[in-house]
Each structure stands twice: as C-alpha cells, then as structure tokens.
From TrEMBL:
Protein name: RND family transporter
Keywords tagged on the record: Cell membrane, Membrane, Transmembrane, Transmembrane helix
Species annotation: Limnobacter thiooxidans
Keyword Membrane on entry: yes
Subcellular location: Cell membrane
Length: 778
C-alpha cells in the first residue's frame, strides 16, 4: 500500500530528508567517522579552579592573595604511620626521608613550600640564657644513633608541630605538599589522574609494608580517586546498554529496529564527545555521566520513532512511506521536546562554577545532535530495513485486544479517577514542599562525601582527624594591613580577638596566626611563664617576636602587609560552614578598627563555603529559568496556557518530590547533585510533549476524551512507559558505583525518570480533563 499523501503535500523538512536519502546518510557517515576520531582525542581531566566559583567574593579574595597563601590552597598530606612503636627510631626516620625525597620530585608539587620533618623550613625555637635559639628539627648532624634520635625528639617537642606535622600519639608524621595549578615542567594544567597515579605507585605502593602505612588526603587525591572510579562508568554504560537492548527487543519484537535505535543513540554519544573535543572541552568526574544521559535521551526519542513506524507498517504502508509518515507525525513534537531539553540544560550556565557550565555545554550539544541522529538518521535507516514482520503481527494483535492495564490508565481521563489523581497529587505536593523546605545546601557527611564512607580515602581522612589537632578542613581568614602593619599591636589585638571569638563557635577545633606566635615568643622570653602569654603594647617587643621567623611558615607576607588566620574545623558540613561564616561576618561588621581589613575566605572549607552560597542562590534561579524556558517552548508548540499547565505541573511535582527524597537519603544540594534537577526536568518533559501531541491528534479526529487518551496510550503511551522503565532500570545500576555522588545521581535520576513517567500517564490526563475537556469525557 502506498501513502495517499504526495511529496508535494509533505512538509519541507520531510522532503529535504527523504528525497536525498543516500546523500544525507553518506554525509552523516562521514561526520560520524570524523567525530569518532575527535572523540578518541578527548581527555578525562580536572582542574581545581574549574570546580570553584571563581567570581565569588571569597574566591576573588583568595586568588588575589594566592601568592601569600601557597601553603593553604590546593594541598595534599601524605601521612607516614608506623604500625608498632613510635616515630623516634632510625628505620622510621630513614623511611620518612625517602618518602619526602620521592614526594619532592613528583611534578606539580610546590617544592619551596613543601614541609616534612626533613625539610629545612620545619624548625624548632627555644629561649635560652643567650636569647632565641633554633634550627632544623632534624639537623644536618643527624646520623641515626641514639643520641641523634633523642635530639630529634627534643626538637620535635620544641617545634610546635605536634598535632600539625607530627601525630599527637607520635605514631605518624605528615609530608605536607602544596600543589601548583600549572605543572612547571610541562606548562600545562596539573594532571590529577597522573598525579594520583604517581602518589600511589611512588609512595603508597613502594613504602607500604608490615611496618609502615601510607595515608593520603587532599583535593587532588579526591579527584584522582574520582577519575579512577569513573573509569567504571564504562562498565555501567555497557550494562545499561545491554539492559536497554534486551528490554527494547522484548518491547518491539524486532531485532532490526532494536539495533537501529541503539546504534543511532551510540552515534549521538560519539558526535557529542567529538564536538566536545572540537570545542576544547573535556570530561571530568562530574560530567562523565552526561554521555549516558545523551544515550538515554536518544533511546527515548528512538522508541517513539520506531513505534510510529511500526504502527504505519501495521496499517499497510511500505517501509519508505511508513518512515516518512512517522517522521511527519513526530518531528514537530520531537523537535520541540529536544529543543526544550537543550535549552533546559543550557540554563545550568547561570551557575557560576566552570565545571557545571562545561556540563551544561556538553548536555546541550548532546541533545542538539540527537535531532540529527535519532529524528533524522533513524527514520532514514528504518526506511530501508523496516520493522520485522513478527513485530507487526504482535502489534496488530495488541491493537485488536483490549489491554486491561491501558484501559485502567485511560480511566484517569474520566471524572472519578481524575479527581482521585489530583487529590493524591495535592497530598504529594505537601510532601514535596516539606522536602523543599528542609533540603540542605552542601555536604552532610564528614570526609569526602563524593566517595563511599568506607573508601580508602575516607578511612585515611578519619585517621588524620583522630590523630592530629589540626584537621584537613581549613577555613582561612585573610587580614590586610599597611606595609609593616601586621606586627602592630592594634592589628595583632584584633586578630587575637577574632581567634577567641571564632573558637567559641561549635565545630571549630582551633586556630593559628601570627598573634599566637608573638604571644609564644613573649612568654618564652619570660622563662615560659604563662602569665606573659599575651600581646605586649611595646612595639619594640612585638618587632622582636618575628625576628628570624621563617616566611615559609606562612604566617605573614614578606612586607608584613598580609597575614592569614587559619581556622581548623571539625568537618566541612553545611551547618558547620554556615555557623563559621556567620560568626566571622558578624565579627568583621562589628570590629572595623581601620588598622586591618578582614576578608573571607580561603582554605578548602572557605572555598566550599563560597561554593555553597553560589549553589544556594543558583538553585532557585536555575529552576525559574528551566521552567520558564520549558513552559515557553511548550506554549509555542501548542499555543495553549492550559496545555502548558498540564505538561509542566507533573514535572514541578517531581522536582519537589526529588527534594523530599534528598532529605530522606541525607543528600545535600551541591555541585554534584544540582544538575540532576535540570537534567530530570529536561528528560521528563519529553514524555508529556509526546503524550499530549498524540492526544491532541486523536481529539481533532473527534474522539471522546477518554477514548482519545486510550488510543494515545496504545501508541505513544506504551512507548513512554517502556522508556521510563528502561531508563530507570539502566540508571539504577549506578547505585553500585564506588563513587558515592554517582550512586546518589543514579538514585535521583531513577526516581525522576520513573516519576516523570507516572506524571505523564496519570496526572497529565487528569489535569487535561478538568482544564481542557470537562464534560466531554465518554
């Protein structure tokens, strides 16, 4: 049977695509080969600066003073632990020396700022009858005998490094390694994957033994572990691919259409990765999941295309006409859905964190290529191969039968069940509003929440927290003065008062600054009498407290116009950071003496506080933009405000319920989870657009509302349910990832895929009945 429609009646897009099928497919094949080559050049990398909000006031202050904060920025701590005895033995100290030497030559380490008991910048100070004396903790005369080791113990006790570089129990010491963002040997950004691998091969693997345990903490190690764990995404992608293929064959009963759909979705991923490389972008631990989302969206639209073609073949049209008519019926709805996805994902660029902006670009590019690979290439392929006859027979049998499940679902287009659905929806809305009011910004766990609590990194982090007075969560307040002003009494007194104030805040362990050092030296000059552990108003006395002090201690700048106050926190949980920031800002507002300017904030906790503020502001702004753009594009497609409400309301309910789920699961809104909301909305709107587009088509044929919805379910509705279930199951495999934030994203996306599907087949018709078709249901 031939289509009754002639080519002259076909829309322009259809004529352009199907009149030159071999040419279009050849051009796409060439594009695929070229972009596949580009995709092989794509690198998985990460950057410290790309993961922080570089325009936030705190980060601007940090970057402006970065030269004086080299030892307080991106830092790795290698803890060398002795399993039996203590550190004061020749064998341990020799091992520590080897670890220090190895670490010194790892590319990317800021060598002048590196610190260990073996480095020249770790010194001891003492006051004797002849004045101040000091020297290296491990002197040049050390030879490993009992006398030398006793001297090292004495020097350690005088160094002030117990709890900082030396464990409180004397069973471990730290090799402190500040990092450079640019590798001086290559001139390129620090390769965190390579750096982490060298830490493992040259330090942990080489020196771990039955006597020594090497532990590593720091941002660079977190990123390295994330990249290592992210390699398993390939396995999850393969598993999801297999699940999708099996379920699609079960749904379609056609091997040809199954392989065609999967192949076109894989081509979309290849194109996306190729374009990312052309744009000078790469993949990082946060965006490595985007290719799977592109694959999922491709499958979602591919299922609609194949289902439409199967229906046309079932009606007796040949392969070419079936593909052409399916394209004609779907390209407007499909194009609208994909444009909505793309613009929705693009709204992530408003979040002032480069890594999320890159994710937004990657997702938007991926959606853009699906327009060609799954809405154009797939129909062209199907116009040659068609759907298997067995699949058409199954479809005809399904069409002729009265499917009880679909008949039940069509009841939501009738008054009674539509009312029940809306009442249930209002109840769920209450749950969602509760969740939205209680969801927290930032991390809710100690250690690195991106990794599992029992991961090697988090176990190392727990060891450090339990055995050192200073934690790895550092909040730095920067104090700026005039030249030589850092040692003036008024400045030091203000710093001392700030420290006392901030140490009263729950969650603060301790703090250090130049004021502490000055008080210590003044007390030392007075035979260690604690009553002299205070600041002296005599400027000559204060000047004497920093004479001979090593600049590498990082307590003040070379011209004495800048000094940091280093605050050690118990953790970097969202509540802890809020309390610390609030107390610091309150102090600054009330104690502006004019002698010193206090600025927030550096250190990993200071950067995270800035990130939390950006995320907190951006989440509302992002949602407003996402829903505004989606609503506008839906209105453009359907020209009806009521239709916009029918499609958007279920999506909004899903977003709110996702917030409630995050509260229940103890997941905070942060860099890793914020994009999920936008991605979930972008994919979910496809369901509503396809269902409403087909429903409107049947209504225009004069069918009663409930019957029109039943016919919609038999075609598009089944495809939507299948897609939601398939994608949900595929994404659920992420729950087994060793990377916790990937597992969290998997759980949240699974929920959003499934619940958006429920919203499209249950709440959409219920809303449409009351808003559009009251009294017309049959």
């Amino acid at each position: 049977m031939t289509s009754p429609d002639t080519n002259t009646k076909a829309p322009l897009a259809e004529r352009l695509v199907f009149s030159k099928r071999p040419l279009v497919m050849m051009l796409m094949l060439i594009a695929t080969l070229l972009l596949a080559w580009q995709a092989t050049q794509l690198k998985v990398a990460a950057s410290f600066e790309k993961m922080i909000p570089t325009n936030h006031e705190y980060v601007v202050n940090f970057l402006a003073n970065r030269a004086d904060l080299t030892s307080l920025g991106n830092v790795v701590r290698v803890t060398v632990q002795v399993k039996e005895g203590d550190i004061f033995n020749a064998e341990y100290l020799e091992t520590l020396k080897k670890v220090t030497d190895k670490a010194f030559y790892i590319p990317g380490v800021n060598r002048p700022e590196m610190a260990s008991l073996w480095t020249a910048n770790v010194r001891w100070t003492s006051v004797t009858e002849e004045g101040l004396e000091g020297g290296q903790v491990i002197p040049a005369t050390y030879n490993g005998d009992a006398e030398s080791i006793a001297l090292v113990r004495q020097n350690v006790e005088l160094s002030g490094q117990i709890g900082r570089l030396v464990g409180n129990d004397f069973k471990s010491t730290v090799v402190y390694m500040p990092l450079l963002e640019i590798n001086p040997e290559t001139g390129q950004r620090l390769d965190y994957k390579e750096f982490s691998e060298r830490i493992e091969s040259e330090l942990r693997n080489e020196f771990n033994s039955d006597k020594i345990e090497i532990r590593v903490t720091g941002f660079a190690k977190i990123v390295g572990d994330l990249i290592e764990g992210a390699g398993q995404i390939v396995l999850f992608f393969g598993l999801a691919l297999l699940i999708t293929m099996l379920m699609m064959y079960w749904y379609s009963r056609s091997l040809k259409s199954t392989f065609a759909t999967i192949a076109c979705s894989i081509v979309a991923v290849i194109w996306q990765l190729g374009f990312l490389n052309l744009l000078g972008l790469g993949l990082d631990p946060y965006s490595m999941l985007v290719p799977f989302l592109v694959f999922a969206i491709g499958v979602s639209h591919g299922v609609q295309v194949v289902s439409a073609i199967a229906l046309k073949q079932g009606e007796g049209y040949n392969k070419l006409d079936s593909a052409s008519l399916a394209f004609r019926g779907l390209y407007v709805a499909g194009l609208t859905a994909l444009l909505t996805d793309g613009f929705g994902f693009a709204t992530l660029v408003i979040i002032d964190i480069p890594v999320i902006r890159d994710l937004a670009v990657g997702a938007s590019v991926g959606v853009a290529v699906i327009i060609l690979t799954n809405l154009v290439l797939l129909p062209l392929i199907m116009s040659y191969i068609g759907v298997d006859e067995k699949a058409i027979q199954v479809l005809r049998a399904s069409e002729s039968s009265d499917n009880k499940v679909l008949r039940f679902l069509s009841g939501f287009a009738k008054p009674k069940m539509a009312t029940i659905a809306l009442v249930f929806g209002v109840a769920l809305l209450g749950v969602g509003l509760w969740g939205n009011a209680n969801v927290q910004i930032g991390d809710l766990d100690k250690g690195a929440p991106e990794l599992r609590p029992d991961s090697r990194y988090n176990l190392d982090s727990v060891y450090f927290s339990n055995n050192y007075s200073t934690s790895t969560d550092v909040f730095v307040v920067m104090v700026e003065t005039e030249t030589d002003g850092c040692i003036k009494y008024n400045t030091l007194a203000a710093v001392d008062l700030f420290q006392w104030t901030i140490e009263q805040v729950p969650g603060v362990q301790s703090s250090i600054s130049l004021a502490d050092r000055s008080k210590f030296v003044i007390s030392a000059y007075s035979e260690g009498d604690l009553k002299w552990m205070t600041l002296n108003r005599n400027q000559f006395v204060l000047n004497g407290t920093i004479s001979g002090m090593n600049l590498s201690d990082g307590l003040f700048s070379s011209d004495c116009s800048f000094m940091p106050i280093v605050v050690f926190l118990e953790d970097h949980k969202a509540d802890t950071l809020k309390r610390v920031v609030a107390a610091a800002e309150d102090f600054i507002a009330k104690n502006d003496t004019g002698d010193a300017v206090f600025k927030l904030a550096a250190g990993n906790a200071g950067i995270e506080a800035a990130t939390n503020e950006v995320v907190d502001r951006a989440q509302v702004e992002m949602l407003v933009w996402v829903y505004a753009i989606v609503a506008f594009l839906v209105w453009v497609a359907f020209r009806s405000v009521r239709t916009v409400i029918c499609i958007i309301a279920p999506l909004a309910l899903t977003s709110l319920l996702c917030s409630a789920l995050m509260v229940v699961l103890g997941i905070g809104v942060k860099v890793a989870t914020l994009p999920v909301i936008s991605l979930g909305v972008g994919i979910g709107v496809d369901y509503g657009i396809y269902i409403y587009g087909k429903l409107e088509e049947y209504l225009k044929q004069g069918k009663p509302f409930a019957e029109a919805y039943f016919e919609t379910l038999k075609s598009t509705g089944k495809a939507v349910v299948f897609t939601g279930m398939t994608l949900g199951i595929g994404v659920a495999t992420w729950a087994f990832s060793p990377i916790k934030f990937q597992a969290d994203m998997g759980l949240l996306l699974t929920f959003m895929f499934l619940w958006n599907m429920v919203g499209a087949v249950v709440f959409l018709p219920a809303l449409a009945y009351f808003l559009e078709r009251r009294g017309k249901a049959a």
